[in-house]
Amino acid sequence: SNNIPSPCIYRTTNGGVNVIQQTDITGLGQIFFLKYKVNGEYTGWHYSNSGDNKFWKTTNSGNNWFQITRPPAQYLGYFSFIDENIGWITGSSTGGGIYKTTNGGLNWLLQTLPSGNNIYHEIYKFKIINYDTIYAVGGYKDLGFRIIGLIWKTTNSGMNWGYQEPDTSIQNGQYYALDFINANTGWAYSGNGIHTTNGGGPIIISSININNENIVKSYILEQNYPNPFNPTTVISFQLSVAGQVVLKVYDVMGREVQTLVNESLKPGTYQASFDASALSSGIYFYTLSAGEFSETKKMLMVK
């Protein structure tokens, strides 16, 4: 029908016999819903890579949608959540990494992949096994005369990522698809398929240091970029030791506006996004606290 808007999302509760258009949402992209109810309703997310490039969330089975922070990537890819709070999403311009949220998409933190050793790091698809273990595909190692596809893996919820090298006698480049039924048994595909029943073997982690090949020597809180901004900006920081890290935003009156990070992190370089679309124009401050280190910087939001 010419009266049907495009793009749009429809919901059915009777196997497709009847469909209801979902409102409050724009743009064409991917959608993900948890397969169980939270407080009696289904929770879902949707993003667009065209038009307004927004990220949306519903907590009432799609009857209403509201905008949340979009990860600071030019183009978003595959995403999945394990519960209403914790999820991951791939994206371009990540420097070889994947974004994680621990508060349902209100904030996103970049987790980076191993570098060096002629490794091209990128994630196309991933499979969440449990809160600790994730498999992913998309990168490769350049051997000079040919490339071999890699399987990315984390066993600590993405705090560190390593990689596995499948049988090098198999003539496979990058792997583009994978699926696992448990932590040990799974498949990956790229022209030829591969199969593991022992979790893929050992994980190579020698090149991992979050975003550095050298250990970070000090705590550093970077100036947000862009600045001034409207409505989102990215805050980068470096840690010298593992520990509890808190990154908060305050208004000019000293009132807390939002907690961007509050978790235990490994040494390395991180990025956190801040969305001020619901706030008024003006000066804001952000403070990083880690151990005995604490630093505050100023930023300006102009609508």
What would you say this structure looks like, in words?
With 303 residues, the protein is mainly beta. Helices cover 0% and strands 47% of the residues. It contains no helices and 25 strands. It has strands at 9-11, 20-22, 31-38, 41-47, 55-58, 66-68, 76-81, 87-91, 97-101, 109-112, 119-120, 125-128, 134-142, 147-154, 162-164, 177-180, 186-190, 192-196, 220-221, 232-239, 243-251, 256-265, 268-275, 282-290, 293-301. Strands 11, 12, 13, 14 and 15 form a 5-stranded antiparallel beta sheet that branches. The chain has a 4-stranded antiparallel beta sheet with strand order 3-4-5-6, with no helix packed on it. Strands 7-8-9-10 form a 4-stranded antiparallel beta sheet, with no helix packed on it. The protein starts with 8 loop residues before the first strand and ends with a strand.
Identify the notable features of this structure and list them briefly.
single chain; 303 residues; mainly beta; five-stranded antiparallel sheet; four-stranded antiparallel sheet; 25 strands; globular
